[in-house]
Amino acid sequence: MNISKFLIAFLLICFPVWAGINVDYNDANCQAAWLFDANTDPEPDSSGNGNTADLVDAPTFATASPPPGGFSTGYYTVDAGTDHIDCGSFMDFSADVQDWSGVLWIRTTTSGSDNYIWGTNLGTGWYARGQGSANDVMLIKIDDGSDDEFDSGSIPIDSGNWVHTAITLDATNNQFLGYIDGTEDITLTTGAVNDLADTLFIGIVATFQFTGDVDESAIFDRELSSTEINDLMDNGLAPVVVAAAPQVIFIMED
Fold this sequence. Notes:
Helices cover 4% and strands 43% of the residues. It contains 1 helix and 21 strands.
């Protein structure tokens, strides 16, 4: 009499499966990425390009309430003193040179045009700052010393909740876009603004400081899409992988 034998094999998939994420700090165009998770000075560059950031005058490291999503474990508070983050000089931000994009989480309850979030310089650079009083919005300004252009959005940024901000440049058309929580909020078309300062600061621009918290920032030397910006907002800068579910395979032998 032939007796059938059944062999049940459980095969666990051990290699990672990408979760549909379009961009992270391993992107070939990511020039610098700072996660701000470990209270390290200088802050390491997770892109692997060696563009570390210096903590100037001791920004306060905190872990109590990072941005939503579970991808961040720490952040820095800058308090409108002289503390800020000096990200160094590693690329040309001029509007007529190349596409670029920058992302940064912020949290603030401070309103007004003196609340400078990040950028390079006032007279020869670009920056993003608050604009208005209550229900403060973000303003982007580009200035090369002889010509300046600016535009502001309509989505408030001073609620005291974390807000994901992003700036992109289409250098061919000299067009800057500003995003708040993944929604395009600013469209700024400039002339050929060039010779911009290239040292990037977070929490200060010239002598104007930001009051609030900052987290997860990165610079790319290409224009990110709206989908990619939303991916970074939802999933953070680190690569996201998910393990495949175990598979059960039945093998029958006679």
